[in-house]
Amino acid sequence: xxxxxxxxxxxxxxxxxxxxxxxxxxxxxxxxxxxxxxxxxxxxxxxxxxxxxxxxxxxxxxxxxxxxxxxxxxxxxxxxxxxxxxxxxxxxxxxxxxxxxxxxxxxxxxxxxxxxxxxxxxxxxxxxxxxxxxxxxxxxxxxxxxxxxxxxxxxxxxxxxxxxxxxxxxxxxxxxxxxxxxxxxxxxxxxxxxxxxxxxxxxxxxxxxxxxxxxxxxxxxxxxxxxxxxxxxxxxxxxxxxxxxxxxxxxxxxxxxxxxxxxxxxxxxxxxxxxxxxxxxxxxxxxxxxxxxxxxxxxxxxxxxxxxxxxxxxxxxxxxxxxxxxxxxxxxxxxxxxxxxxxxxxxxxxxxxxxxxxxxxxxxxxxxxxxxxxxxxxxxxxxxxxxxxxxxxxxxxxxxxxxxxxxxxxxxxxxxxxxxxxxxxxxxxxxxxxxxxxxxxxxxxxxxxxxxxxxxxxxxxxxxxxxxxxxxxxxxxxxxxxxxxxxxxxxxxxxxxxxxxxxxxxxxxxxxxxxxxxxxxxxxxxxxxxxxxxxxxxxxxxxxxxxxxxxxxxxxxxxxxxxxxxxxxxxxxxxxxxxxxxxxxxxxxxxxxxxxxxxxxxxxxxxxxxxxxxxxxxxxxxxxxxxxxxxxxxxxxxxxxxxxxxxxxxxxxxxxxxxxxxxxxxxxxxxxxxxxxxxxxxxxxxxxxxxxxxxxxxxxxxxxxxxxxxxxxxxxxxxxxxxxxxxxxxxxxxxxxxxxxxxxxxxxxxxxxxxxxxxxxxxxxxxxxxxxxxxxxxxxxxxxxxxxxxxxxxxxxxxxxxxxxxxxxxxxxxxxx
Length: 817
Known about the structure:
The protein is α/β, with parallel strands linked by helices and about 800 residues long. The strands form 7 sheets. Strands 3-6-2-1-9-13-14-12 form an 8-stranded mixed β-sheet, with helices on both faces. The chain has a 6-stranded antiparallel β-sheet with strand order 16-17-15-18-20-19. A 6-stranded mixed β-sheet has the order 23-22-21-24-25-26. The longest helix has 25 residues, at about 85-110. It is elongated.
């Protein structure tokens, strides 16, 4: 025999009753079935409201409301099941409603609702469900046996949460029901106390009733039917990619339910586990799905099965010298809490035994403090105990898995994930079986913590939430690259979500992602100001898992905020060289912020656009190598200009051509001044460990300073031909010696020089032209032949590609691209 239990949401209306009846009869075709039912949805709440109105002598009004609602379900079922014996069903229904009215009237005469009457009233909903289902089955000529829980379920209701006396219940069941039919019904929730009075099984009482009946019947399986497909490895309302657990153990289910998962109450699981009866959670709306199977054994090889959370708890801390010197203090603490009928959710004790902390439901915090202050009045007065502390607005987040004890590093992964979410851990607890690890966190960060932990422990899909600042030439190309690669990256288990695009004043933000079709128009229409507070608020409200700022500007205002971005949980990817060439103090502050908050500060494009210069240099240095000398062409625009000059163009003609192709800055004076190359050289020098400022570099502009200092682009282009003849002489002189001109950055020890050099054919930079960058890196390992990196370093495409590469490095999960 199998026991099936249906909750209130499965019995909300006549259509749901028909669905439940079909499920029961379909199951009954292959095996005997006993069904336990709850009251129709929200009916128990209506009945509790009735008991609250009794003291105001208004209970009879609520009886009328309840009768009206149940009559509607009844009449609708009569239409769906025309063969129902309406007269008999209505007679039983009227008797139930009459009984409800009599209980209410009697309680009103007393002026209050006695415990037995209260239990009789609030269990009427379950009796209605049995009444109606029995009528439906009989209309199909089925023989139905009704079990009355008040005859055999013996409840010890002296505790804060009623518990069934299993052995006595089994014995009395056999006495009252020596033979069992093929199709049985029982109302859940109700039972009797040891004196024989009607009582209830408390919270989740109908589930508990089903488990108890399964034990009494020695059932093969207990099925709990609800409105979800089964148990998930986290809250599917919070985690979009939460995974259904097809199997789990009793212990795992117990831990999950204890720490907040909406599955079975621990007291429901206990009798099933004790008598080794498997339990299955199934969906009434999708009976064909397999659901979650709970037993002593799990078929899963996963070490961690789920992440769950328990919101709204308070932590009580008792501390002081008496905790260590006086025997029995901890026992008295928990005894006082028990006497006040307050449940403890988690316990944590300091290793020095100086304090003990435990969590209680938030609504019971004040009551817990009050009872402890009374119990330890003398110790508090004599200073043997310090003032008892209460921290409210907390939550518990827990990872659960039977096999966690066999895998090292899970706790580290759990706590690292909380750190990545910038969630402070207030207390930690782990059960001795190592099936669960719990952390107390601030309630306001609970959703963030749960999402990050789920991503870290179960994620096979790396997530990047990209915010692009600067949508000029490079920024626009990067946006296009991101959007065009979304599907490809998704196939590689990388979810890249473009959630923000900003210009110099405003920012477009969309947690669901920005599409390629309309982002320009939407950005032009938005009035949202671009600032740090806006970004931080958005990241928190949108619960971004892995937010990344990508700076495509050359703005000093933006670069000066990088430390703030890092401190507020953002990775920073940048092509903007201003931050890395700011003061050495700011340079170090950036790295400290990134390290402190476990965030990445990536700037590969600062030097070689799309070329892997920084990565290679860092790799050599990490391997113990040492930079001896560096020389390179670090400007793609100047590489192109100088190459065209040797092809016969004048300097002004070559510069104008490079600008038209988009290789130079809007004002080419910024390129020819040498400042951009100087910044790149300083970045490399600092990477190599040199403590230098920008002013320490010896920079010779590519044009006279009178031209290099012109801030207006049109004015610069107009006056540049003044220098053509003088520059052409440099070209001719070099060519006469078999050399070519290159604008070179050179690092030799702590001496950094940037300027025009004439190099011969033997030099590694001789053949570099057409916008290529090239670097010759001389190190302890690479000499006398240097390590050479060469490739295109000019243009929006390669720069954007370099930024995209850095963006992918911010993934918290390693994957294959």
